[in-house]
Amino acid sequence: MQRKYYVLLIFEGFYYQVSIGWKSSNPELVAVSSEGTVSAKGSAGTAVVAAYSIADESVRAECQVTVEPYYGEHIKVTSVKLKAPEEVFWCGNTYRLAADILPQNATNQAVAFTSSNPKVASVSVSGQLTALTAGTAEITVRSIASGLTDTIEIEIRDADREAADAVIRKIESIGEVTLESEAAIKSARQSYDSLTAAQKALVGAGLLEVLEDAEQALADLKKEEADKNAADVAAQKISAIGAVTLESEAAIQEARAAYEALTAIQKELVGAGLLKVLEDAEQALADLKKEEADQNAANAVAQKINAIGTVTLEKEAQIQEARAAYEGLTASQKALVGQDTLVCKSHLEKSEGRICILCVPLHPEG
Q: 139 by DSSP, 3-state: which?
């Protein structure tokens, strides 16, 4: 229902005839006639009504007019309590604030919200809060009817900043890189890669370079360890050869294969000394194998000579075979024939001489 009210205007000073004008700051809520009659047009709210001198508008008076719904008996607001929708407010988000009014059937339950720090958190009169940047602000709700207020302090947090800061702490905690740093470096990398582009920008290129340098240092250490382990395996195989015998051949071949499988850097870690040990072992084995081969060749010839036995004409081919075998030996092998077959060589020569005698006729013709 529209109601009309009258505004009493008193100009102090000398009495003289003045032409008065009237204005309302919100004509849709509060209208004022040229005679100063105020009419409530809207259901609730406030407006400023001004009376001024038409001759000089700087001569003026104002009053605030509050329009409240009429529900019969006027029930006053006795308590107002601000309700926050969240415990934590995050930058970039908007939130709707509300207030509890007591009694619940108060005639005018209109409230207005304000912020003590609009740069951190701005709030509209109706209670829409916008979190702008990290920090704190006091949000106040005021009852339009009673003027009672309630205030809470809220914290605005920056999710991007906090995510970036968590990664920064991980990177900075890596410190001097050792092989034991691997878990920390991997954790920092995984956390960094999970950031958004905006969050990575907050971490910065400098700290990213620190992380990358740590990763490279770890890779270098792991390679050094792998090189050393590979070199140690080859070195252990060489050292295990010990005194060389014919039975050492498998161990020597295994040590050589392990050494040849190494990279140039790994071979340097084995060292020239152990390489010389391996080469000496190979030479010793080759000498032993040659000695064995010489002995076997000499023994075979010795067996042929010893097998001649008593010389008869039928032994000529056998004796010639023994001679051919003997002549096929090297000088060192021939020496072994003489040493190991109980004068086999002289036996061969005697057998050859005996064959010659047997072949001469007792009574040559003519």
A: strand
